[in-house]
Amino acid sequence: MWIRQPIVGVLGHVDHGKTSLLDRIRGGMVAAREAGGITQHIGATEVPIEEIYRICKDIIGKRTFKIPGLLFIDTPGHESFSSLRIRGGSIADLAVLVIDIREGIMPQTKESIEVLKKFRTPFVIAANKVDLLEGFSGEKGAFLTSLKNMDQRKAEVLDERIYDLAGQLSRIGISAERFDRISDFTRNFAIVPVSAKTGYGIPDLLMVLSGLAQTYLESQLRNENETPEGTVLEVREERGMGEVADAILYNGILRRGDTIMIGTVNGVKALRIKGMFKPKPLDEIRDPRDKFLSVNEVRAASGVRLLLQGEGGIIPGSPFKKAEGDLVKIREEIENAIKGSFKLEPEGIVVKADTVGSLEALVYELSRINIPIKKAEVGPVSKRDFTDAKTNNKIENRIIVAFNVPVMVREEGVEVLEGNIIYGIKDEIIKVINDLKQRELQEKRKHITFPVKIQVLPDRIFRISKPAIFGVRVIAGTLRVKTPMMRSDGKDLGIIKSMRNGDQSLEEAKQGEEIAVAMDDVTVGRQIKENDILYSNLNENDAKALQGEELTLDEKMVLDEIINIKRKEKPFWGT
Questions:
Q1: Where are the beta strands (DSSP E) in 63-174?
Q2: Which H or E run includes 509?
Q3: Which long-range contacts (CB under 8 A, 24 or more apart) does 134-138 make?
Q4: At 458, which helix (H) or strand (E)?
């Protein structure tokens, strides 16, 4: 039996400084290397207890801890990463909720709190960006140390911000107070003022986290011969090694030579561990500064790089578990975790992503704007994906979203949206869908007669017949050459032979325009007169097809008028 290090999830709103806070602790610069400056995947950093003692030496006194350190999980903060935060929160023993002390509670802050409530994860609030408050720009070291000599004005500025933050938290059911004023941590959540930029308050944050873990979590941190299990964070190609999986082991002891059940592109497989590698303390597993250390065993909780024997194709985001006991049950658990609970439709777009977490986040984001999804999978875009996209009946669903994955083939008739920042895809896909719908509508207008309504202008009769040439105003819709026309009583008038505006020939005229038209089969004064209202003469099939199309409000009104005219002769016309 041993006490494992607690897993600490770091959550919060985008740009409130989660990765920057960890950068300050480990002395790295991961945040600057993220796509768009935003964390896209879960990462992990181990902070050994010796380092905590060093950082906290000015305030920790003679206090000691049984925990071997803290394992931080850095989770994406944008609202579209709900599923990743849930995965991070679900395996976390503790959490740090990072809040910009100036901005306070934001939408993703509330969502993070809901995640933590759902999994009953205790958390500490890191009130970040204190350096931007009056008088704090150059402040470093421990908050408790600076408090002894803090002048009244600075103390008032800080207290005002913390009281305001506590008030916002109270309104959503969270009782919080500055950490040094709390006597019972089971009744109040601790607020620790920090600055990721200067390091101010970092010792206090680490001390509070270690103290909470020691006092309240010791029983759940005990490990006794539990089956090793964890989660794959990312899969990458390493020179000289091939495919490796960066993972979090959150239960048991994993040893080189063990066989684990893990998700691959070819299903759940039993793969033997050929090698295990650990980042050095304070290194980030996603982007380490130093070389990994080869190890023979890893104890939970820990970040670890796995080299597995087999054909590869490990799915990022897949859980894994040592292959012992009921293997059928283990296989089913892993399969269900990979599939997720996506609601797929027979008609919809294709979504491909690099990890299970990214896939969940994409599906979540697209579902919020009512985009139907036909297929959602981890892996590169293949020929089969293009086939699936092409079989959609609606052109606006012939789209493939490729998040951080290669597109192996290209085929006509399918739009491919590529990107590596999920929250930008929503705006792009809305634009593409609107463009596709507009393109389809323009194409249909070439082959289907659309509703249009015009008025014969008085004093604009240029020729009475053969052909009749007269001025009209387009009241609704778009008038095109070769459009068949009828009177308001349903009398057929033949087609628009040509249209002109002065010396310029036209193919179409839009609502509000006044132009001259030529028609062969009418005589002004007989079939048509000045001020007459004329309509496009739809056939019944076109009318039925148009009732399911996205028409303008004016076009819909004109379509109803045309249907009413036709039904005077045929009561069920167009049904």
A1: 69-74, 94-100, 123-128
A2: strand 508-509
A3: 136/195, 136/200, 138/198
A4: strand 453-463
Q: Return the CATH number of 229-335, one of 3.90.76.10, 2.40.30.10, 1.20.1270.50, 3.90.1720.10.
A: 2.40.30.10
Q: Assess contact for 40 and 76: CB atoms under 8 A.
A: yes
pTM: 0.62
Cβ-proximal residues to 3 (8 Å cutoff; 6+ apart), any chain: 66, 67, 68, 218, 221, 222, 223
360-398 pLDDT, tens digit per residue, is 778 877 887 888 999 988 889 999 999 999 999 888 889
Instruction: Give the homologous superfamily in CATH for domain 349-446.
Output: Translation initiation factor IF- 2, domain 3 (3.40.50.10050)
Residue with tokens 């309240």: 216
Residue of 13, 16, 41, 78 marked active site: 78
Residue 529's SS3 state is: coil
**pLDDT tens digits, one per residue of 264-321:** 878 899 999 999 988 766 554 444 545 678 899 998 888 888 999 987 788 877 889 9
Q: Are 567 and 490 in contact (CB under 8 A)?
A: no
Q: Which helix (H) or strand (E) holds 55?
A: helix 49-55
Low-confidence ranges of the chain (pLDDT < 50): 28-42, 77-89, 284-287, 289
The pairing of strands 229-238 and 319-322 is antiparallel
Catalytic residue check, 78: yes
120: left (phi over 0), alpha (psi -120 to 50) or beta: left
